[in-house]
Amino acid sequence: MVGQYAQVCLQVGQEAGVTTVDLFSTFVDSGDLKSLLLDGLHPSALGSDRIWHTLRPVITTKVVDPPMFFPYFGDITMESLQNWE
After folding, report:
1. CB burial of residue 67 (10 Å; 0-12, 13-18, 19+)
2. First-to-last CA distance in the chain?
3. What is the pLDDT of residue 18?
4. CB-facing half-sphere around the CA of 77: CA atoms within 13 A
5. CB of 36 closer than 8 Å to CB of 50
6. pLDDT of residue 62
7. Mean pLDDT of each 10-residue bin along the chain, 85 residues long
8. Which of 20, 23, 67, 82 pairs as cysteine with 13 (C-beta 3.0–4.6 A)?
9. Among candidates 36, 31, 38, 66, which has minimal Cα distance to 51?
10. pTM
11. Helix 2-15 vs helix 23-30: angle between axes, to the nearest 10 degrees?
12. Domain extents in the chain
């Protein structure tokens, strides 16, 4: 039943003309759902990594250079925080 739901979601997205990603098959085809899911629903660290590596190629084709609204965390200093507006 879950697989059918996932297929319908993909179909609706494709019919709407949006990019779709089949994360359900990515997880099921791995053959290792127990290590990818913490509780059968929420991704583990390994599952999150699998999601990222599946989505990243799609995201980078859609968003070439995303704007940076906040400073890179490595550039934040105590002085810059005091001057934050």
Report:
1. exposed
2. 51
3. 93
4. 4
5. yes
6. 82
7. 90 95 93 91 94 92 74 80 70
8. 20
9. 36
10. 0.67
11. 140
12. 2-62
